[in-house]
Amino acid sequence: MSDHHLYKRIEIVGSSPTSIDDAIQSGIAECAKTVKNLEWFEVQETRGHIVDGKVAHFQVVMKVGFRVEGS
Question: Under a CB-based contact definition with an 8 Å cutoff, are residues 60 and 45 in contact?
Fold first, then answer.
């Protein structure tokens, strides 16, 4: 294996009716089910849905980085 690594970055959107943190956690957990070698994430955007004057749902747009297998 080389000392150099190659990374790829994808965009995902985590969502939760509970909190921004839960939207991040659940988004990463779901992504980890199908993407190997996750290494980092960046929050790009936060938004939500309002119902009857209250926050009903949180959405967090994230860039997620993973190491390409074999690099």
Answer: yes
Amino acid (1-letter code) at residue 46: T
CB 67 within 8 A of CB 56: no
> What is the model's pLDDT at position 2?
57
**What are the tokens at 43?**
């929050």
Lookup: tokens for 45:
């955007």
Locate 13 and state its tokens: 């959107």
* pLDDT tens-place string over residues 29-39: 999 999 999 99
- The answer to whether 68 and 8 are in contact (CB under 8 A) is yes
pLDDT tens-place string over residues 16-64: 999 999 999 999 999 999 999 999 999 999 999 999 999 999 999 999 9
Max Cα distance, the chain (Å): 56
Question: H helices then E strands: how many in the chain?
Answer: 1, 3
